[in-house]
Amino acid sequence: MSYRSSNYRPGCGRTLLSFLMGAALLIVGIKIGAWKPDILDDTEYTIGKTVADFLDSRPVIAIDAGHGGDDPGALGLVDEAELTGETAEALFDLLEADGRFQPVLCHEKGTTATIQERYAVANDAYADLLVCIHANSDPESSGSGFECYPAPPGRKYHPESYDFAEMLVEEFSALGMTIRGENGIRYAYYDDNNEKYLVESSNSLVFTDPSFGMLEKTKAPAVLVEQCFVSSESDLALMGGESGTAAAECYYRAICRYFADQLEDQPQSDNVQDSENTDSSSTTEESTSDEQVYQPVELPSDE
Q: Helix, strand, coil: what percent of the chain each, to 5?
């Protein structure tokens, strides 16, 4: 079962077992005088996730729509919060219809939620992957394109986050989006003055400065995406307009690729299979008539 709630908990059974495990560990730790909050927290989380996975092995996908409520985000032809909220809900619906995933919205569209509240939802759900959806804006309306930010080098989930980021770049490139930077993948950090600076993914040095809070605090592979410029008509057209449906399909395909090995033995929803078969037939006919065959997209090396 999937929920659209910032108070989401992964099922009563999962929560109760997790709580009991944590309580038992806390009591034992205090009795032997070896209690350390950070160690206990990690152990409790690991046990809770193990139990949750046993009860329902489907991957949990946490979806965070950037901004919302009192915070409209970047302004342009459409507010960032409006676009990211629509895209997040469209992705949720795709994953739920698939049947092989447990999608979770970190907050409802149009609501205000702090970063702390958002990553708490992902962690409470024992997320296996976090997708943070954002968008850029350019006052001069000249900026365009896609870029994304995985958990940086030195972080626990960096390798997996980077792998997923590569899949996202490929999907959005195939959609026709301009790929920004060296390869569409960058790292973001904040210095001592809380000023943000960016580093291209070719720089594999480990920086101690913090990155985005959602990437640092979520206990799962995570990628923050700047999916387009809300000030660019061409970008928005590729996204599927204000609904963001085309973007949602890119995320969905990348997620299916990322969990491909895990999904091999899981049955996909009949509705999704029928839809894919219909789309496949239509695509085949169009490709035959136009003599177009899909080819892997070669990413640009420069902006």
A: 45, 15, 40
Pairing of strands 196-200, 147-150: unpaired
Nearest to residue 80, comparing CAs of 135, 146, 2?
135
Considering only residues 183 and 27, tell me which one the structure prediction assigns the higher pLDDT: 183
By CB atoms closer than 10 A (0-12, 13-18, 19+), residue 281 is exposed
Give per-residue burial for 179-198: e unless 16+ CB within 10 Å, then b.
bbbbbbbbbbbeeeeeeeee
CA separation for the pair 201, 187 (Å, rounded): 6
The residue segments making up the domain with residue 6 are: 1-56
Answering whether pTM is above 0.85, one says no
Write the burial class of residue 133 (CB in 10 Å: 0-12 exposed, 13-18 middle, 19+ buried): buried
Domain tally, the chain: 2
**Number of C-beta neighbours around residue 285 at 10 A:** 10
In DSSP terms, which residues pair with 223 in a beta bridge? 131, 150
Same domain, residue pair 223 and 74: yes
Q: What angle do CA 256, 224, 182 make, to 5 degrees?
A: 95
Query: d(Cα 182, Cα 162) in Å, to the nearest integer?
Result: 14
The answer to whether residues 76 and 209 belong to one domain is yes
Q: Could you give the CA distance from residue 199 to residue 301 in angstroms, rounded to a whole number?
A: 15
Give the pair of three-digit tokens for residue 195.
Answer: 């000023």
The mean pLDDT of 19-37, rounded to a whole number, is: 50
The two most distant CA atoms of the chain are separated, in Å, by 74
Mean pLDDT of 136-161: 96
Instruction: Report whether 110 contacts 202 (CB < 8 A).
Output: no
**Is residue 288 in some structural domain?**
no
Helix 158-175 with 245-258: angle, nearest 10 deg: 140
pLDDT of residue 159: 98
58-72 per-residue burial string, b: 16 or more CB within 10 A, e: under 16:
bbbbbbbbbbbeeee
CA nearest to 92, candidates 266, 244, 275: 244
